Amino acid sequence: MRGKMFNLKKFTGYILIASCLLMFSVFNTGCSSTGKKKDIYERTPADLLAEGQEKLDKAEFKSATKLLQAIKDRYPYSNESIIAELKLADSLFQRGEYDEALTNYDDFERLHPKDKSVPYVIFQKGMCHFKQIKSMDREQTHVAEARDEFEQVVRRYPANEYSLKAREKVRECLIYQSEYELYVGIFYYKKKKYQAALDRLTYLMENYPDVGQYHEALEYIAKCKVKLAQAKK
Question: What's the DSSP call for residue 212?
């Protein structure tokens, strides 16, 4: 009986020690985590920006995002915060988070409309849409939005270095849109909806006359007219 009581006490002691060790481990981990977070938010905006740029240069975009966000949260009225806002948008863009990047670029343009980086920001807004263009047979929303942003750069900042890049992207968007119109026109033709096909292909010719689909569109326009003439006989 005494042996059993001794074993029970010994077992209880082990449980108590294990519990204390577990509590110490949890407490220590929590303190370390808190300390790490506190350390980030106690650093100067210049230090955070420098490290954020270093992370961007190393393509460590997740870490860069955390550091740049800390500047916005802790030092919203500093000069570094304006730089961080733009770099944060760039970091999200590089991570492929295009919708989030677009929101950040939008915020930057709204908050700093006279900043020298605005032409670049508008161009990047176009790129956020452009990167999400999948194929010519999908909904053309991103193509239209991208084209609109690129055309804004060309229209508002014709002498800016991003105007030339925007012009090239506008042409790419026009090609996407003309390919889509050709795709739809041919689709209607194959479905024997010749008038609908003719209307779509005529629209293509009138609005996208010089982006590469001219000859194929003419070919199908001629076919549509033959089919429509035959239907009238």
Answer: S
